[in-house]
Design goal:
- This protein is 53% helix and 0% strand.
- It has 130 residues and is an all-alpha fold.
- The longest helix is centred in the N-terminal third of the chain and has 24 residues.
- The protein is globular and about 40 Å long.
């Protein structure tokens, strides 16, 4: 049983809030909005903040990680991504979608020497379209 004040519970709660912010961005994109404001504050789970500090990830790269994590952790993400992509055959996030919904986007996030690529954060079962 987990204590409601434990660091684990706090990390879970902040992750849920962070993923909710990403979901709001995806939903807004399906309505044609670009880089919309969200009703959820930009709360960063402490573990993610430490990861970003350690590897020098930008805010955009941080959001890319959350987008990919959302695909694995939240069953709503595939449908939301398909709607935002305007194609039911694309139930996954694409780099184009990320460029449109996140603040301060940059193509350098995908260069071979960029942390997300060089450390293989965005590889895996190919659930992310980048």
């Amino acid at each position: 049983m987990t204590d409601s004040n434990s660091p684990f519970t706090h990390d879970q709660q902040t992750l849920i809030l962070a993923l909710t912010r990403i979901k709001e961005r995806i939903k807004a994109a399906s309505l044609g909005e670009t880089r919309p404001e969200t009703t959820v504050a930009n709360i960063i789970p402490p573990v993610l903040e430490q990861l970003c500090d350690t590897f020098g990830l930008s805010t955009f790269e941080q959001d890319l990680l959350l987008l990919c994590a959302g695909m694995e952790l939240d069953a709503d993400f595939p449908l939301l991504c398909a709607e935002a992509n305007g194609d039911p055959q694309k139930p996954y996030p694409t780099f184009s979608l990320a460029l449109n919904i996140f603040d301060d986007p940059h193509w350098s996030a995908l260069t071979p020497n960029a942390p997300l690529r060089s450390l293989a954060f965005t590889r895996g079962r190919r659930r992310c379209g980048f």
